[in-house]
Design brief:
Elements lengths: L5 E5 L4 H17 L4 E7 L4 H7 L4 E4 L10 H24 L3 E4 L5 H10 L4 E5 L6 H7 L4 E4 L13 E3 L15 H7 L7 E6 L6 H9 L1 H6 L2 E6 L5 H4 L8 E4 L5 H7 L2 E4 L3 H10 L3 E3 L9 H10 L5 E2 L8 H10 L1 H13 L5 H14 L1
Parallel strand pairs: 1-2, 1-4, 2-3, 4-5, 5-6, 6-7, 8-9, 8-11, 9-10, 11-12, 12-13
């Protein structure tokens, strides 16, 4: 097969769509060093910054999702869609891709629709246990659909589905050898348990409020907290950095060290986070965001909790948090049981498996 293939990748809006797309591109680049890559994203979304940082070219479409309430944005949606289909068509005509890959998000819709129309083989990667509107539509025409959960034949044609898992950072595969390094990196007391709190890159208001209201409780439990409060909330919460055993971070540059140093993790349940936490294999309390399309975070967390691999605590159950947390903290057997169960759900070879599927389509 020729080495100088043209690979078109589209996905974005959130880190959960962007990072898998970049991981897939990186693996393809290892196999095809001469390949040409082009990403297609949504203008003014984070992919326009993150993709060039990873070393890839990107073009932006004028597209956004449909809001759940009546807004000016919704009224302009048909115009944005037509404009994006037109521009996606031009991009495909000029770039001449050998394959088009979609990882979800608004921009992947018009891009893969036009790729299909022009006879370009397409593969979509669905991160969640409940697919978004874009991937549900694209699934009808896609050649292959790589998924991370069972029972997605409710949404996609069974013959096209391959269970691969979600691409994750490769540095997480060796975190158990980094425990001492992680504790030193975060200047932790090695005799105390460490709680890691993750609210996503922007932060999670309800989780931040929960941590703030439980600072004395954590102190009484003699635990130390690595609190990633997010970009939107750092100014509000950085004052707690003066407390012993509490460290507040806008974001964490060394996630591998943060995971390695922690004993219990409190986290949102975005698809990428869930996949990472399965590989990390630590006890987790999931507090899903209820403000996402089709409430997919709750469904992601439930898929793990149903296998006794995590505790699921919805935002309207947070008054029970201290009891749930203290019970888990004091029950070493339960912690080990949860760790084993969540780790069994891990699919560490996801990126390789997805790229194997892409190679098969390229060979056709």
């Amino acid at each position: 097969m020729k080495q100088s293939i043209n690979i078109l990748i589209s996905g974005g809006g959130t880190g959960g769509h962007i990072y898998p797309a970049i991981a897939i591109a990186n693996e393809l680049k290892l196999r095809y060093p001469e390949a040409n890559f082009l990403f297609v994203g949504a203008k003014n979304k984070m992919e326009m910054e993150k993709v060039p940082q990873a070393g890839y070219a990107i073009k932006g479409l004028w597209i956004s999702g449909i809001q759940r309430k009546l807004t000016i944005d919704n009224l302009s949606f048909p115009f944005k869609m037509l404009n994006s289909l037109w521009n996606a068509s031009k991009i495909i005509k000029n770039f001449k891709p050998d394959i088009a890959i979609g990882t979800g998000g608004f921009a992947s819709g018009p891009t893969l629709i036009m790729a299909n129309r022009k006879g370009v083989p397409t593969l979509i990667q669905e991160q969640n246990s409940y697919p978004g509107i874009t991937n549900k539509l694209l699934g009808k025409k896609a050649d292959k659909i790589c998924v991370a959960y069972d029972h997605l034949e409710r949404f996609f044609p069974l013959g096209k589905i391959v269970k691969t898992g979600n691409p994750v950072r490769q540095d997480l595969l060796s975190i158990h050898s980094k425990i001492e390094e992680g504790k030193t990196f975060f200047s932790l007391d090695k005799n105390k348990k460490t709680i890691l709190v993750l609210g996503g890159s922007l932060g999670a208001r309800k989780i931040n409020q929960l941590v703030e209201s439980n600072l004395d409780f954590f102190k009484n439990q003699q635990v130390q907290v690595i609190w990633q409060c997010g970009k939107l909330y750092y100014e509000e919460y950085k004052k707690y950095n003066t407390s012993d055993d509490i460290q507040v971070h806008q974001f964490l540059n060394r996630m591998d060290f943060a995971y390695a140093a922690s004993d219990i993790i409190i986290s949102r349940a975005g698809a990428s986070s869930v996949s990472e936490l399965c590989i990390v294999g630590k006890p987790v309390i999931f507090i899903p965001s209820p403000n996402v399309a089709e409430d997919h975070q709750t469904k992601n967390a439930k898929a793990i909790a149903d296998q006794h691999g995590a505790i699921l605590l919805s935002e309207n159950e947070l008054e029970t948090f201290s009891i749930v947390f203290e019970t888990l903290l004091k029950d070493r057997g339960k912690q080990e049981h949860m760790s084993e169960n969540i780790n069994e759900l891990a699919l560490p070879g996801a990126t390789t498996d997805i790229v194997n599927e892409i190679e098969q389509l390229l060979k056709k």
